[in-house]
Design a protein that fits this description.
Blueprint lengths: L1 H19 L4 H20 L4 H7 L10 H8 L3 H46 L26
Helix pairs in contact: 2-5
């Protein structure tokens, strides 16, 4: 009984912190890849023959799926499509992980920007003529957007 309690306590102390950890964004994205893959398969099985018949009534298209149309020009279409879905999920996952890692720095930068903007808005306006008294910088060739 004592061994069982010790094993239960050890399992609890190991499993609880592991369960409390949030999955990385890339893991969440890659978890959706199979569902997207199945949805794409379902869409490719859509029979568009009747739509094509309505658009061109003088030519019969019979049963024609989007998959049939894609395979006509690319016999390796299915393999490439599935690879693209999972490859895109992996790329998006890496980007999401990078954004998650940069999030604290981005939050700090945005907070500082908000403070700086609030301070600039609260500051008194510059004295009149402050900007008008400055000479304009000389125009260089190619700087004139109007071509004058």
């Amino acid at each position: 009984m004592r061994r069982m309690l010790i094993a239960f306590a050890a399992t609890t102390f190991i499993a609880v912190p592991a369960a409390a950890q949030q999955p990385r964004p890339s893991e969440k994205i890659q978890d959706y890849a199979p569902a997207i893959d199945r949805a794409a398969d379902a869409m490719l099985n859509l029979d568009v023959g009747p739509i094509l018949d309505a658009a061109d009534p003088y030519r019969r298209h019979h049963r024609r799926t989007l998959r049939d149309m894609a395979r006509r020009d690319d016999p390796d279409f299915d393999r490439r499509m599935h690879a693209t879905i999972y490859g895109t999920a992996a790329t998006m996952g890496r980007a999401a992980d990078a954004f998650a890692a940069a999030e604290p720095a981005l939050r700090r930068a945005l907070t500082q920007f908000e403070r700086d903007m609030a301070a600039a808005m609260a500051a008194p306006p510059p004295p009149r003529g402050h900007y008008e008294d400055r000479p304009a910088p000389p125009a260089e060739d190619g700087d004139d957007p109007w071509g004058d």
